[in-house]
Specification:
alpha+beta; two-stranded antiparallel ribbon; 1 helix; 2 strands
């Protein structure tokens, strides 16, 4: 094709994308026996803005805690 062969990517710019992903585990432990009673977990993305980040974490904890106490099936 010579000079007419299209070179994809020529002239394009690379824009890196960063994302903070976190894992959250909430353990409820019996203080007398030290045994694990319940564990909740989840994962999510956080923003770099502290106020937004704190709200996201608070909402995330609330969502994980929605499954406590466990129901007997």
């Amino acid at each position: 094709m010579g000079w007419y062969y299209p070179y994809y990517g020529y002239g394009s710019t690379y824009k890196p994308f960063t994302k903070t992903v976190g894992l959250l585990y909430i353990d409820i432990v019996d203080s007398k026996t030290g045994k694990l009673i319940w564990q909740g977990s989840g994962s999510g993305s956080l923003s770099s803005n502290k106020l937004t980040r704190d709200q996201l974490i608070s909402n995330f904890v609330s969502r994980v805690m929605e499954s406590y106490p466990p129901t007997d099936n």
